[in-house]
Amino acid sequence: MKESKSLVANALSKPSIGALQGYREAEFDDVKFLQIRAYSEHPEVYAAADILVQEFTKTRQQIRNKDKYPRDAKKLIASIWLHKGLFRFTTKGVHFSKGKRKQVWMTNRSLDLFNCMRSLGWVEEVLGAIPPYLAKNKIGFSAIYTSTDAFKTLLRSLAEQDITVNPDLPCVVRKNANKQVIEEPDSFYSSKPYQEHQSLIQAHLERLRRYKTCWADGTEVNPTELVLTRQFTEDFAHGGRWYCNFQNKPKSVRNSITIGGKAVGSLDITQCHPMLILRIFKGKETEDGLFSSHNEDVYQVSGFDYLDRSIRKKAVNTLFNANDEESATKSLRNTHWWIDEITGDIEIETYKSKKKRKGQPVFKNKAEIKKFIENFKFMHPDFVDAVGSGVGLQLQGFDGAITHQILKFADLIDLPLIPIHEEYLVPEDKKDVIEQALKLSMQVLLQKAGRYGSIGAKWSNSIGGEEKIKIDLTRK
To answer: In 3-state terms, what secondary structure has residue 418?
Structure first.
């Protein structure tokens, strides 16, 4: 940390924006935005919030919604404490909700209180923002901050078990094409479907906390890592997958946790989206075509066996997600892969800006991408019309609905689980239970399409062992 600050100090002492960008890219590329996802009623948080609100109000005669500032102060303080280390934060007013708008985790009150924390010396700027017109990527960079010793002194006895989820965090959101949250009217949050989602998520979190979900070292996983959000794109007919911070952890870390003092395993649906395409749009269980009897893997593409299967899977799903082949080609030209130095896992990312790339590109050039698409179509004719169709967002809606149904079953039978898209972590002794829950959910959601043949799945245990499973959908 001291080394990073000294580098920043040297960069800021020079007038060169290019030099400043160079230091930012070298030292701060992985610094994340502060997420106001936490809350606490711990006495120290309460006292710190009281100091903060008093400091903010003493120079202002009139304050709108004054009664809401203490609650927002607790959210902000708990989130900064939990985040630890460096974080990005923007102080541009356009990024904060106004009036009755429902982006309650990023309100103008949050901005007011954050700026007051700066004046109190509780947070300090480590690296200043770069505006779009000066940035090489034409997007710009938000400022980077860190909490100070003065802030930490206020919270000496605060522990992770004292932190809970921001109670105002929306559990269902829509995002536009630029991944910005779309505002919803107040009636949306009082609707029956939203209230059902909220109750389901609260029960899910309470169950995981009651069973004590712990990291490998025995410390409890904070609920802010486990809180689920269902995310749609543009409208409620597209998207609908469930997301949580926990999914960003490497699989080796995820499968090393314990729930209720027991090691966990994970049940992962094999080739989930291709399976859904076949069942929902083709009305069949398996592929036809020249290679169908020799190839059970949709992600196998002739001439590209040198790519790891996870990379081929990413590429094929990109073909399904894109609205046309040109968009798919553009995405694949910006898809890179590398091996994580700590976990040894393959990491894959598709870049949408001039952000510094990691690793190496999956494909050398446009011609190689074209060859990949041609070979995929040749080997898998059942999926030709899915390429460049944008069907991926619909498929996310289906796997989101399956997870929703599984969460409802889990609530009925008190089953602690953690969903990672179409993968489900449960205590190892609940393997048969999650298999049954998945089967019933498929039958309920897909109706006829979910009541014939079988689906493939993979069970991974806590020590890395894997077992292929066939789940019979014909039986009740």
So the answer is: strand
